């Protein structure tokens, strides 16, 4: 999952020549995003959407999917299901 998200972002960058200056961010921060060491925020999603001519939400949905996948990989304590009282 991580590798595929990084590949998608890297491919977009290479095909469209998008860089840190296009997005108004620093090169180190752009590098962190490209290498999976920084998350896509709502603000970054809007910048990418505008730069790439896409509707907002695509990049942040991929980030949420990645975050959820990462959380599922970790062992976690069982939580009892609640019974609703109406």
Q: Span between N and C termini?
A: 41 Å
- Under the CATH scheme, which architecture would be assigned? Orthogonal Bundle
- The DSSP helix count reads 5
The average pLDDT is 84
* CATH topology label: 434 Repressor (Amino-terminal Domain)
Q: Say how many strands there are.
A: 0
What is the helix fraction of residues, given as a range? 55-70%
The name of the CATH superfamily reads lambda repressor-like DNA-binding domains
Order of helices and strands: HHHHH
Please tell me how large the radius of gyration is: 17 Å
* Structural domain tally: 1
Fill in the keyword field for this structure.
86 residues; mainly alpha; 434 Repressor (Amino-terminal Domain); 0% strand
Architecture overview:
The chain has 86 residues and is an all-alpha fold. The chain has a single domain, classed as 434 Repressor (Amino-terminal Domain). It contains 5 helices and no strands. It has helices spanning 2-16, 20-23, 27-34, 42-52, 58-73. The model has no long low-confidence stretch (mean pLDDT 84).
